UniProtKB/TrEMBL annotation:
Stretches assigned to the Glycosyl hydrolase family 13 catalytic domain: 23-439
Family the entry assigns: Belongs to the glycosyl hydrolase 13 family.
Keyword presence, Plastid: no
GO biological process: oligosaccharide catabolic process
InterPro entries the record matches: GH (IPR017853), GH13_cat_dom (IPR006047), Glyco_hydro_b (IPR013780), O16G_dom_2 (IPR045857)
Gene name of the encoded protein: malL
Top-level lineage group: Bacteria
Record-given protein name: Oligo-1,6-glucosidase
GO molecular function: alpha-amylase activity; oligo-1,6-glucosidase activity
Protein EC: 3.2.1.10
This protein's UniProt keywords: Glycosidase, Hydrolase
Listed Pfam families: Alpha-amylase (PF00128)
Length: 575
């Protein structure tokens, strides 16, 4: 027990527990050379913005050499930079500039799959190659002619729609691709694959990188043998069940091996695993103080509460606030004593939260963005800010199929309309959930192309950049930007924000999100109206905050008896 207590104390000092992470999607952040695509030099040019915001860690989505089939998540060379984004020298300069400002750099680690243009896969296509077993190859289903309809080894569907198997005529077998057909899955059962990955990770750490965000990392161990799953209703007999492939029997073995080979815990490197189909028990095991696996994980549970169960995310359902509160509370309670939470509303795969869970009308966009930020940042865990979130950027507002660029959205529209779904319903789903919503360029100025590029942007800039932009936000003391800056400062300054024990209040209330965080004799009380209507609370609904210090609020003279639309406040009770 004494050893465990000492380990807990040591892990309790991990630097990322008091940090806030800012995610950059490079092609949409800032373009320095006028080609319409963001680049590393553009990031360097805007580091003062991040420094003013107060974030501690910059997480960079993939900038490796890539054919860009999935915007860089299809990697053809892990130790080179795609010319779209710059050079290795630019990355070295970025690392140095961040470290000089007291910030750290986290790279995206995409090792469930590579590009089909990676040399490993090119070699693997030859059945006689020593790299044949570096990927997941299978013969046609018994009794079927290879390449024929229905001959795929299993009925698994790609998460980008269609079959997860691609027939390779040159070698006479199928390879597995859980995402695009140009993203073949690596075979982690092969120790040579694992050692190659660990060598690459060490190469980046030695270059100065401070950690890794691990893309769909719990898919690297797949349940064997590969068998058919239950078909997903309405999607052509294919199975889209992440549970068929996630959290396989050797996952923890692989994570421990990776941790030791790269020295993730020993070097105090930042690690967060993106994980499909994980629950609290999984997360506790993977992030336990004694596990030596990961620092934290991304869960998707709260991101599926506004869709119909068992089908694609584009089949929408209204968000029920008590469900959202219950899910976030479940993770707060579940990882209270062991493990650690990641806190996020937005990322490159999710729509803009102010349009999704807030109110992006002119009247309530700012206050709802602030309140969404407050209820997230006052939870226990490491918060993530996605580029433009600090400005209250909104969804793209697309109305036509031709406006979408993302492979997932384009494929869904094609297949859904071919299956007879009404075009209007398909477009409604895309407008709400397409990944393009997160990928419109960052809005720096009110000028042409929002100051993102002097050329033609790869994805159109949102027309509302005239009023929603970084220049205007930094100049306005009441902006979303300055509210986020203060939230980040509270995490840095108050131990109760970092370590306080969570308790949910009013779990069944349809409009109010309220909770406490307690550490010693200090109690942090967060009260938020998550609606566009006034709400009256009764005495005793929340703790008495008479005389308490107001740490942050969306409105002047906040009260806890009548809350205005999207009003929120955080009170500190006790010394």
């Amino acid at each position: 027990m004494a050893v465990m207590d000492a380990l807990r104390q040591d892990r309790g000092m991990t630097w990322w527990k008091s940090s806030v992470v800012y995610q950059i999607y490079p092609r949409s952040f800032a373009d320095s050379d006028g080609d319409g695509i963001g680049d590393v030099r553009g990031i360097i040019d805007h580091l003062d913005h991040l420094s003013a915001l107060g974030v501690d860690v910059l997480w960079l989505s993939p900038i490796y050499r890539s054919p860009q089939d999935d915007n860089g998540y299809d990697i053809s060379d892990y130790t080179d930079i795609d010319p779209l984004f710059g050079t290795l020298a630019d990355v070295d300069e970025l690392i140095a500039a961040l470290h000089q400002r007291g910030m750290k750099l986290v790279m995206d680690l995409v090792v469930n799959h590579t590009s089909d243009e990676h040399q490993w896969f090119i070699d693997s296509r030859d059945p006689a190659s020593d790299k044949r077993d570096w990927y997941v190859w299978r013969p046609a289903r018994e009794g079927f002619e290879p390449g024929a309809e229905g001959a795929e080894p299993t009925n698994w569907g790609s998460y980008f729609t269609g079959s997860a198997w691609q027939y390779d005529e040159a070698s006479g077998e199928y390879y597995l691709h859980l995402f695009s057909r140009k993203q073949p899955d690596l075979n982690w059962e092969n120790p040579s694959v694992r050692q190659a990955v660990y060598a690459m990770m060490n190469w980046w750490v030695e270059r100065g990188v401070d950690g890794f965000r691990m893309d769909v990392i719990n898919l690297i161990s797949k349940t064997l043998p590969l068998v058919d799953g239950e078909p997903t209703p309405g999607l052509g007999g294919l199975c889209y069940d992440p549970g068929m492939v996630a959290n396989g029997p050797r996952l923890e073995e692989f994570l421990k091996e990776m941790n030791a080979a790269v020295g993730l815990s020993q070097r105090q490197l930042f690690t967060v695993g993106e994980m499909l189909a994980v629950d609290v028990d999984h997360a506790r095991r993977y992030t336990s103080f004694e596990a030596d696996e990961l620092g934290m994980v991304f869960t998707f549970e709260h991101m599926s509460l506004d869709q119909q169960p068992g089908v694609s995310k584009f089949f929408l359902a209204p968000l029920h606030l008590p469900d959202l509160k219950a899910n976030l509370a479940l993770w707060q309670y579940g990882l209270a004593d062991d493990g650690w939470n990641s806190l996020y509303w937005n990322n490159h795969d999710q729509p803009r939260v102010v349009s999704r869970f807030g109110d992006d009308s002119d009247e309530f966009r700012v206050t709802s963005a602030k309140t969404l930020g407050t209820v997230l940042h006052m939870l226990r865990g490491t918060p993530y800010v996605y580029q433009g979130e600090e400005l209250g950027m909104t969804n793209a507002g697309y109305t036509e199929a031709e406006q979408y660029a993302d492979i997932e959205s384009v494929n869904f529209y094609r297949l859904a309309t071919a299956a007879g779904l009404p075009v209007e319903a398909v477009l409604t789903g895309l407008a709400a959930k397409s990944r393009d919503n997160a990928r419109t360029p960052v809005q720096w100025t009110e000028g042409p192309n929002a100051g993102f590029t002097s050329g033609r942007p790869w994805l159109p800039v949102n027309a509302n950049h005239v009023t929603i932009n970084a220049d205007a936000a930094r100049a306005d003391a009441g902006s979303v930007f300055h509210h986020y800056r203060r939230l980040i400062g509270l995490r840095h300054d108050h131990e109760v924000v970092r370590e306080g024990r969570f308790e949910l209040l009013l779990p069944d209330h349809e409009q109010i999100f309220a909770y406490t965080r307690t550490l010693g004799d200090q109690v942090l009380v967060t009260v938020a109206n998550m609606s566009s209507h006034e709400v009256r609370l009764q005495p005793g609904d929340v703790p008495d905050v008479t005389g308490a210090e107001v740490l942050i609020a969306t409105h002047e003279q906040p009260t806890v008896d009548v809350l205005r639309p999207w009003e929120s406040a955080v009170y500190l009770v006790g010394s």
